[in-house]
Structure formats: structure tokens, C-alpha cells
Write a structure and sequence with these properties.
This protein is 34% helix and 23% strand. The chain contains 4 helices and 5 strands.
Length: 128
């Protein structure tokens, strides 16, 4: 069985996902995903597409993650895993799409504008 490659992005995080047949081992940057993501909510986010497809022990997943924070990385990894599952088994696409896992969240941080303290905030107005 060949290896399936997929890419997931969220905010500034990028996840390169490699999916192959196996026993359900998820490795991120050379570490186990439970060690990499300490928060259980992030571990839950990562495994959502596998739980939806009842494939938690069918595939081994290796991922390279960089950029962003832990939540953005977890959501980028979820998108990457979902895309890899769709390439592996196209019949599962409708079920994963209904759960909203195939939608790339396009929201990015707005840049800071010159002459302002933040992107939209203005300095305090002073009459005198």
C-alpha cells in the first residue's frame, strides 16, 4: 500500500500529513501525538475525522507541523488527515464534509496598520 500525502492549513500553521496502512499510530514531528498535544481538546480535534470514519486503528499517520500555535496546528492537522482519508477512500467524502472537516477556515490575522497601536484600534482621542 502506497503512502498518501495531504496538506492542511489553519491560521499560520501548516501540516504535511502522510497516511499509510497500519495500526493507528499518529506521529507528529517524530513524537507521539498525545505527547505533542498536551491538551485533551487538541487530541480530540486531531482524531475527529478518524473517529467519524471508524478508522482509528486502520492507518498510521506521520505529520510534519510548523508555524502557529497549538490550536491552529491541531486544526491544520485535522484538515490534512481528512484530505488524506478522502484520497484513500472517496466514498467517505460526503460524511466528512457533512461534519465540516473538509472546509478550510480562511481566517487570518489582520496586519497592523501604520500610525495605529493594532490593526483597527485607534489611539485615545484627546480634546486638549
Amino acid at each position: 500500500m502506497e503512502q498518501i500525502n495531504a496538506l492542511g492549513r489553519r491560521k499560520a500553521a501548516v501540516a504535511r500529513v502522510y497516511l499509510s496502512d497500519g495500526k493507528g499510530k499518529i506521529t507528529i514531528n517524530g513524537r507521539d501525538f498525545k505527547e505533542y498535544f498536551g491538551a485533551e481538546t487538541h487530541q480530540y480535534i486531531v482524531t475527529q475525522p478518524l473517529v467519524t470514519m471508524n478508522a482509528t486503528d486502520k492507518y498510521d499517520i506521520t505529520a510534519n507541523l510548523n508555524g502557529g500555535g497549538s490550536k491552529g496546528q491541531a486544526e491544520a492537522l485535522r484538515l490534512g488527515i481528512t484530505r488524506a482519508l478522502v484520497v484513500m477512500d472517496p466514498e467517505c467524502k460526503s460524511e466528512l464534509k457533512a461534519e465540516g472537516f473538509l472546509t478550510r477556515d480562511p481566517r487570518e490575522v489582520e496586519r497592523k496598520k501604520p500610525g495605529r497601536p493594532k490593526a483597527r484600534k485607534r489611539f485615545q482621542f484627546s480634546k486638549r
